[in-house]
Amino acid sequence: MIGHDVRVALEEHARAELPNEACGVVVLREGVAERYEAGRNRAASPYRFELEVDPEVWFLEDEGYELAVFHSHVSAPARPSRTDVENIGLWEGRPYLILSLGTGELAAFRLEGGRLASETVES
Known about the structure:
The structure is a single chain. The model has no long low-confidence stretch (mean pLDDT 93). The chain is α+β, with helices and mostly antiparallel strands and 123 residues long. It contains 2 helices and 8 strands. A hairpin with a 2-residue loop joins strand 7 and strand 8 (115-119). It has a 6-stranded mixed beta sheet with strand order 2-1-5-6-7-8, covered by helices on one side.
């Protein structure tokens, strides 16, 4: 569940980072997004991202939160690209959100064992 305020924060960050992909972490509790922690794309690229976020964010899992990686696609659909899948790393099995600035679509996925599964995003 991505509420209005979090959705707006994702869109604003994505637009502010143009022409590059934006990235960050959505902080969830029991499947509901409580806030967005904007990150920095170390790759500074319109085609891929390397997430850098305040290290304190990672400790939120110890407090019972679930963390979802977020990034934008400048013009591509809201589906993981080949680069996204190849670089999933520590995010395998966790929620993975993509916002397409071209269409405005926000989609969620999980990748486990090489299998990609869509998740429902509710507003």
